[in-house]
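Retry 2 of 3 after timeout on previous attempt. Resubmitting structure tokens to design endpoint.
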């Protein structure tokens, strides 16, 4: 007796499976641009070393991407799904690195500052070029920077009395949303990709953090 052929999962069912996986996976997770993979941070079964891992949707296999004894965390996909930006303290302080998925090689991207984290890759078609936004500490405060994917001098976008963190690119690459406590509590802000026209978006009585854009801008 031949085994019945399984039907391909519908898009809603596939999304439900993916969201269930996200709930079960540890650490920070992020979907690949095509929605078929999830990159995440995990300390392993022994909980002794944080690294970057990859999980295919619909497969039980988990692929370990980094093996350095240092702490590796905060993965962020490139628009083409071929690279991951992540943070590692393998140089002694947290810095942003870029990992090539094809060969597993990682290169250090940021050199300025002693604490750089929260990388966010600019979307495909960004007129400003292929950049990564990140949070860096300057004079005891966190500020938002961008840097070219091939390296170079970073550009500081925020100069505030408080902390500015968690950059998130708009789908069209024109804006960056972020979190700041410059007004007292953490609230959501938005600015042009150049750092101009910084505007507060929320004013709740609590803290608002970790902005994320919808896939479409009306």
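Retry 2 succeeded. Sequence:
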């Amino acid at each position: 007796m031949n085994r019945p052929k399984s039907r391909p999962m519908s898009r809603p069912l596939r999304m439900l499976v993916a969201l269930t996986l996200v709930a079960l996976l540890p650490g920070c997770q992020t979907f690949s641009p095509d929605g078929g993979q999830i990159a995440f941070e995990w300390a392993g079964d022994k909980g002794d070393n944080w690294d970057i891992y990859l999980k295919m949707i619909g497969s039980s296999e988990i692929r370990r991407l980094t093996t350095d004894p240092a702490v590796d965390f905060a993965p962020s996909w490139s628009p083409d799904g071929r690279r991951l930006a992540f943070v590692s303290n393998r140089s002694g302080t947290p810095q942003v690195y870029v990992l090539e998925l094809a060969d597993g090689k990682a290169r250090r991207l940021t050199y300025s500052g002693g604490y750089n984290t929260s990388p966010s890759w600019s979307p495909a078609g960004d007129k400003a070029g292929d950049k990564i936004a990140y949070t860096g500490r300057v004079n005891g405060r966190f500020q938002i920077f961008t840097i070219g994917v091939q390296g170079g001098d970073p550009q500081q976008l925020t100069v505030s009395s408080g902390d500015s963190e968690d950059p998130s690119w708009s789908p069209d690459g024109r804006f960056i949303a972020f979190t700041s406590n410059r007004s007292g509590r953490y609230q959501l802000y938005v600015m042009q990709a150049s750092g101009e026209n910084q505007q507060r978006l929320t004013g709740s009585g609590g803290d608002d953090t970790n902005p994320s854009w919808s896939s479409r801008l009306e």
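Attempt log closed. The chain has one helix and 16 strands.
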